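@channel sequence for tomorrow's demo:
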Amino acid sequence: MADYTLEQKESFTVLGIGTELKSDYRDVAGINKEKADFWLAASQDGTLDKLKAIATNDYIFAVNEAVNGKMMYYAGVMTEESLPEASRVIQFPKGEYLVVKGEANTAEELNTKLAGIAFGQILPEANFAYVGGPNATVLMGQRDGLVFGEMWIPVVNQ
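structure tokens (generated this afternoon):
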């Protein structure tokens, strides 16, 4: 099984600008393409720069959340401020989180890699379960030409 930790986290909020994912939830390739297209557009149209300008830290969140039966995907930051174009204030609950660390060539690769490890390897074999609600890949920085970060998924013991 892949390396992971379980960590207690206080509740926190992320201000996000997002999009609805239209691919079937079982279409991993389709979802990954939609996410990559969204990140490319957010990088090119200034969305990420606007979010970074009001962030309280250097973390960039790629958030997955089901909202009213729709699969939503957000670029977000921790902040006390708001933006007119922000589409959601995402509340992460206090509790235990599965944390998977990793690095990759790009943010999109990191997101895909960590989600695959978390949902494809760890959760199916673990004695804890994803509780639903938002989960996120947290982009924490770059070193040695690679992007590094963590995936945070709220879990409960089974």
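heads up for whoever presents: Helices lie at 28-44, 47-54, 107-125.
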